[in-house]
From TrEMBL:
GO terms for molecular function: fibroblast growth factor binding. Its main location: Golgi. InterPro entries: Cys-rich_GLG1_repeat, Cys-rich_GLG1_repeat_euk, GLG1. This is Golgi apparatus protein 1. The keyword Methyltransferase does not apply. It is a single-pass type I membrane protein. Keywords: Glycoprotein, Membrane, Repeat, Sialic acid, Signal, Transmembrane, Transmembrane helix. It is found in: Golgi outpost; Membrane. It comes from the Eukaryota. Cys-rich GLG repeats lie at residues 4-66, 140-200, 268-327, 329-391, 463-522, 583-642, 650-710. The keyword Signal applies. GO terms for cellular component: Golgi membrane. The lineage of its organism: Eukaryota, Metazoa, Chordata, Craniata, Vertebrata.
Length: 743
């Protein structure tokens, strides 16, 4: 045992080891044993004779040594050097002042055991990582010592025996978890990292591993396997700058972003390197403490909302939940730090990177998404499609929406969307590269640009490619599930959501509520809700929840129009026409009627009507916005032209045809004729309270008790009957009851 070695013997051993690395006599042994190797490695051949630098140089380049005897000799020398930090060439000179400043020399006072010297390096490493986590660090490690610390960590990256502190902290854990893992090439480190959050992992080993991981975050070369596997790819895509271990380019996040950018651009990155990247991206998602920016920016949020959740990515998901507004407020800096981390780790490309999501959604993936191969980016899309279905579990739903909140704020983080749309985005939306961001571009701006172009007609020019358009539609369908997945909508409508919709917490209710209060909204929110509603009128399949409710009726009556690549409002028209079929369920009928009521607020919300009549409206009904007023204006013009036998109708033929469809649809529900509805509201309450709205039943009820109606309502009902006598097709009940006889 160490403590049985006498102090005299200890001192003698120390001098012997010191001589091994610095004495010219021992250096000559190295020159003899490694003769051909020195000739191959120019940096070592250039080292001056007798200064003691040669052995240190060969240790630095031991990964490139192929000569067997030389490799064996240098491996022994490496073990000797790393047994005591004072033997590492230049380390003592570079870090002497820092050892005193951080009081690292007095960790184990009075003990001169050489093994304790690993504690000195560990103390310096902790000082280095602590400095990165503080806004205004009290003690700063000097630049030359930082370089020396990271160089020592790099040199010990292949064999965990060389990290003396970690070796002694993790001896038992190595036996427990990695007994069959052969030392060398960083394999033991990787094995221990994989077991870091196991319940039986000792706390001292977990701390030592976390420090090691934090050093890797500062300098990727501290990971032997990553540096080795990605060496050629880093060079190929110019991701690394040599001799700058403390520079931005050495940071793990920079390396990941640079190589991920190459992958997303369709460049070849070796499978070994991609495997290493996956491991380290998962590592960053699992443990928030490895990202100094998160610690710096989110310290308050972690203390208030997420303390004690450290393991397996739970703290990060807790912070994401806070950002979504489900658990207090979050600072802008913290939100930006989280957004940056999500881009660095890129879980949108492979859901397995997000361990918390992976564990929560495992059962859903096994049942609902088993047809998609593991790790495919479409797994996330599949999970979104099964949101709020019986296959979804609550924990998975929460983790999924927390992650999607961030993915929805940066279009690049949806891997499939980026792959299919990067050309269109560059051409139409002036985007930057994958790993470049613009402060001038607000969250969601690129996607907004893409969907504006997705629904352009050929006459309007520059449209999206077919495959990009399909992806944009996929994202729109998913976003309709939750207003928080639409950055612009959440940003501009936050006040209105609180004012009008605070009690509407059920799925899909928030957007419906905003549509119901369209006239009450602030102008920015009204514009966004209006644009979204206009988009829905063209492609109602965006309303995923409505589509689910209406699935039986679509399959039976509307499957031909539902299969069209471009909807153009046909599907909603079909649903309205079949609203009273016996196959129609209550949920679908309510959803369709709601959309009809929303359409009355603005004629732009009826896509087919808008496209058929926009020129007629501009010419004959300028400055009229509400659909019902536009219908009255146009139908009055048609009637006058007909009565006066005008040679040429002022309203175009295509508009007259669509106008007829709109007029007939409006007769089915009194709420679709706002003036009549407003005039008769109290009468409906008094006399027709238990009568359903659909199938014109309220109108028939009012007709039957005409003599009891209030004057205003009586006048409106009489006016309606007068119109029906002139044009019997507008009498909904007559046309329904007598359908067979008319035929």
């Amino acid at each position: 045992p160490d403590n049985e070695i006498s102090s005299d013997c200890n001192h003698l051993l120390w001098n012997y080891k010191l001589n091994l690395t610095t004495d010219p006599k021992f250096e000559s042994v190295a020159r003899e044993v490694c003769k051909s190797t020195i000739a191959e490695i120019k940096e070592c051949a250039d080292e001056p004779v007798g200064k003691g630098f040669l052995v240190s140089c060969l240790v630095d380049h031991r990964g490139n040594i192929t000569e067997y005897q030389c490799h064996q000799y240098i491996t022994k020398m490496t073990a000797i050097i790393f047994s005591d930090y004072r033997l590492i060439c230049g380390f003592m000179d570079d870090c002497k002042a820092d050892i005193n400043l951080l009081k690292c020399g007095s960790i184990r006072p009075g003990e001169k055991d050489a093994h304790s010297q690993g504690e000195v390096v560990a103390c310096l490493e902790k000082g280095l990582v602590k400095e990165a986590e503080e806004t205004d660090p009290r003690i700063q490690v000097s630049d030359q010592c930082k370089k020396a610390i990271l160089r020592v960590a790099e040199l010990s990256s292949d064999d965990f025996h060389l990290d003396r502190h970690l070796y002694f902290a993790c001896r038992d854990d190595r036996e427990r978890f990695c007994e069959n893992t052969q030392a060398g090439e960083g394999r033991v480190y990787k094995c221990l990292f994989n077991h870091k959050f196991e319940e039986s992992m000792s706390e001292k080993c977990r701390d030592a591993l976390t420090t090691r991981q934090k050093l890797i975050a500062q300098d990727y070369k501290v990971s032997y396997s990553l540096a080795k596997s990605c060496k050629s790819d880093l060079k190929k895509y110019r991701c690394n700058v040599e001799n700058l271990p403390r520079s931005r380019e050495a940071r793990l996040s920079y390396l990941l972003m640079c190589l991920e950018s190459a992958v997303h651009r369709g460049r070849q990155v070796s499978s070994e390197c991609q495997g290493e990247m996956l491991d380290y991206r998962r590592m960053l998602m699992e443990d928030f403490s490895l990202s100094p920016e998160i610690i710096l920016s989110c310290r308050g949020e972690i203390e208030h909302h997420c303390s004690g959740l450290h393991r397996k990515g739970r703290t990060l998901h807790c912070l994401m939940k806070v950002v979504r507004g489900e658990k207090g407020n979050v600072g802008l800096n913290c939100q930006q730090a989280l957004q940056t981390l999500i881009q660095e780790t890129d879980p949108g490309a492979d859901y397995r990177i997000d361990r918390a999501l992976n564990e929560a959604c495992e059962s859903v993936i096994q049942t609902a998404c088993k047809h998609i191969r593991s790790g495919d980016p479409m797994i996330l899309s599949c999970l979104m499609e099964h949101l709020y279905t019986e296959k979804m579990v609550e924990d998975c739903e929460h983790r999924l929406l927390e992650l999607q909140y961030f993915i929805s704020r940066d279009w690049k983080l949806d891997t499939v969307l980026y792959r299919k749309c990067q050309g269109d985005a560059s051409r139409l939306c002036h985007t930057h590269g994958w790993n470049e961001t613009s402060e001038l571009m607000p969250p969601g701006a690129v996607f907004s640009c893409l969907y504006r172009h997705a629904y352009r007609t050929e006459e309007q020019g520059r449209r999206l490619s077919r495959e990009c358009r399909a992806e944009v539609q996929r994202i729109l369908h998913q976003r309709a599930m939750d207003v928080k997945l639409d950055p612009a909508l959440q940003d501009k409508c936050m006040i209105d959501l609180g004012k009008w919709c605070s009690e509407k917490t059920e799925t899909g209710q928030e957007l419906e509520c905003l549509q119901d209060h369209l006239d009450d909204l602030v102008s920015d929110c009204r514009d966004i809700v209006g644009n979204l509603t206009e988009l829905e009128s063209e492609d109602i399949q965006i309303e995923a929840l409505l589509m689910r409710a209406c699935e039986p009726i679509i399959q039976t009556f509307c499957h031909e129009v539902a299969d069209n690549q471009i909807d153009s409002g046909d599907l909603m028209e079909c649903l309205i026409q079949n609203k009273h079929q016996k196959e129609m369920n209550e949920k679908c009928a309510i959803g369709v009627t709601h959309f009809q009521l929303v359409q009355m607020k603005d004629f732009r919300f009826s896509y087919k009507f808008k496209m058929a009549c926009k020129e007629d409206v501009l010419k004959l009904c300028p400055n009229i916005k509400k659909k019902v007023d536009v219908v009255i204006c146009l139908s009055t013009t048609v009637r006058n032209d007909t009565l006066q036998d005008a040679k040429e109708h002022r309203v175009s033929l295509k508009c007259r045809k669509q106008l007829r469809v709109e007029e007939l649809e409006m007769t089915e529900d009194i709420r679709l004729e706002p003036e009549l509805y407003e005039a008769c509201k109290s009468d409906i309450k008094n006399y027709c309270q238990n009568v359903p709205y659909g199938n014109a039943q309220i109108i028939e009820c009012l007709k039957e008790i005409k003599k009891q109606l209030s004057t205003r309502c009586h006048q409106k009902v009489f006016k309606l009957q007068e119109t029906e006598m002139m044009d019997p097709e507008l009498d909904y009940t007559l046309m329904r009851v007598c359908k067979q006889m008319i035929k």
